[in-house]
Write a structure and sequence with these properties.
CATH architecture of the largest domain: 3-Layer(aba) Sandwich
Structural class: alpha/beta
Low-confidence stretches: none
Radius of gyration: 19 Å
Bound molecules: pyridoxal-5'-phosphate
Number of domains: 2
Order of helices and strands: HEEEHEHEHEHEHEHEHEHEHHE
Number of helices: 11
Mean pLDDT: 95
Number of strands: 12
Amino acid sequence: MPNSVKKQYISAQRVGGQMPPRLKLAQLPTPLQPLQRLSERLGGPKIWVKRDDLTGSVLSGNKVRKLEFSLAQALAEDCDTIITCGGVQSNHCRATALLCAQLGLHCHLVLRGNEVQVPDGNLLLDFLAGAEVSFYSTAQYQRELDNILMRVHADYKKQNRKAFIIPTGASDAIGVWGYVEACAELKQDFIQHDISPKHIICATGSGGTQAGLTAGVHRYGIDAQVWGVNVCDDEAWFLNKVNSDLVDWERRYHTGINLESLSVKVIDGYVGAGYAQAGQQIFTCIADVAKGEGLVLDPVYTGKAFYGMLDQIENGLFGDSGDIVFIHTGGVFGMFPQRSQFAF
Ligand SMILES: Cc1ncc(COP(=O)(O)O)c(C=O)c1O
């Protein structure tokens, strides 16, 4: 990418030298909307939804906020190729592939899962965006991911290309900024709607969204507890991952935040049979919310998290009054390969 174009993309949003470069890629601010009917029916707190499923059409979801920082860093380091990884229906990989196409970067996706005859959902969009795709069996991927990424990186070096590796879900010190800065937007939303939510709930899959929100509420003076509903693994895994992303972030950027004062909380118990495997109650919940509120969730991330939030409302975790916020992190394309799970 010529320097002139690169400069155009990188915005000068450094605050006291603490912030990394950022690209303007997402459609922001996203709306904050109340779910009036559902909240009234439940008789608990009023549920608001931060519509980060609207960060773009094919770029929808939470990953774009993180990639504004990860891809800016790649450009700042003069890279021409992006390597990233995820499941075969990864929303993160789809968003990365499309943004690479938008920025004129080569994209190589290392995917966990089998090659299919007819690509569907996110994978179809990966191919449409011209990404180079390598498939690995789940066992090999889990055993060797770091080595695979290093090998792919070395192959590009041999071709005189400069590649930049973005880890799973862009959940690392750089990607954390995406949801730290989303909190500046949330603060404005709360002022505009004159609300003071005490709880913010999101799906957590690789931890970066939750890490960013947890640090962001502190940085922007929002008095709310952030809860991640894990969609895979368990509470211990996420406490460790979110905390270590936060430590890496602070080590890299020296924002001066007191990490001890941050409260990392996970709501476990809604994973079901495993990652991307949802029980029938999740599909029923998705259909109810779509019909009742016109809000479309997905079976891998937001459906599980939303269902978990509703269950915890019934258990009284958030109290029975006041406002709570669900971050809709997108994921609609992951629904199509699971279409047969819906009974109409
Ligand atoms: C739609 C959607 N929601 C939530 C998440 C979870 O975000 P994170 O990976 O930052 O935990 C992801 C990605 O993993 C996602 O694709």
